[in-house]
Design brief:
By secondary structure, this protein is of the alpha+beta class. The chain is 27% helix and 40% strand. It contains 5 helices and 14 strands. The strands form 4 sheets. Strands 7-6-5-8-14 form a 5-stranded antiparallel beta sheet, with no helix packed on it. A 5-stranded antiparallel beta sheet has the order 9-13-10-11-12. Helix 1 packs across helix 2. The protein is elongated and about 65 Å long. The two termini are 18 Å apart.
Length: 230
């Protein structure tokens, strides 16, 4: 199997100026926020002090804003580097992206096919094994296209009975595995020969009295399905 590691980059836009902030530069800013030291921050990301300064200069020049303030100490030291309000705003947005990515890092990957496109409703009907689901309309797709549908574990709800709600996709299945992972129950559900995973809380598992072999319904919103054309 091919080993693929994807790095994260953040596209920062400030008053019409943009900069692609990679993971290392993000870590530098985060370390400066924590340590208020350019020297320590450079060490933490394993670059020289000069390289760290060059990183900051590139970001500030591209965005035309000041993201750090540096003060020099006298003979006794006392200097330091702090994040400006603009720099903190950039960091906050990056942290929000990180939080979302961490929340949705585990996903069900399902090979599927476009069966129907309804432009008036803004949805597509996609076939997965023995069942069909609704996904958001993508005008780059056409009927017959092969897709990879992605649904994060935490976006799949487990129910004992179908419920009337904004959830468009409700499918009957059977629990075939349950595991405790990081304070949540990871439930493996067989739906028409396809295995899907859902992460639920310990209290939800108790309230629903879930057990292996139990028939349940899973549900997820159309908007929670991301698709990639194969």
């Amino acid at each position: 199997m091919t080993d693929v590691k994807a790095g994260v980059e953040y596209k920062i836009n400030v008053d019409g100026n943009s900069f692609l902030l990679d993971g290392k530069k993000y870590q530098l800013l985060e370390s400066i926020l924590d340590t208020e030291s350019m020297t320590e921050s450079a060490k933490s990301i394993k670059v020289s002090y000069r390289t760290a300064l060059n990183y900051i200069d590139k970001i500030e020049s591209a965005l035309n804003v000041k993201i750090v303030n540096t003060t020099k100490g006298g003979k006794g030291g006392g200097g330091g580097t702090t994040i400006t309000d603009e720099g903190y705003s950039i960091l906050k947005e990056c942290k929000k992206i990180n939080a979302i990515m961490e929340l949705h890092k585990d996903v069900n990957e399902i090979e599927s096919e476009v069966l129907d496109i309804d432009e008036s409703k803004g949805i597509m009907t996609v076939k997965m094994k023995q069942f069909e689901i609704n996904t958001p309309l993508n005008r780059n797709y056409k009927v017959g296209d092969k897709l990879l549908a992605l649904i994060s574990y935490d976006n799949i709800f487990v129910m004992l009975e179908p419920q009337t709600s904004s959830i468009r996709n409700i499918i009957k299945g059977r629990i075939i595995e349950m595991k405790l992972e990081n304070e949540v129950i990871r439930v493996k559900i067989d739906v028409g020969g396809l295995n899907l995973y859902s992460d639920i809380t310990l209290s939800a598992e108790k309230d629903l009295n879930l057990t292996i072999g139990k028939e349940v319904y899973i549900g997820f919103k159309a908007m929670s399905v991301a698709t990639l054309k194969l």
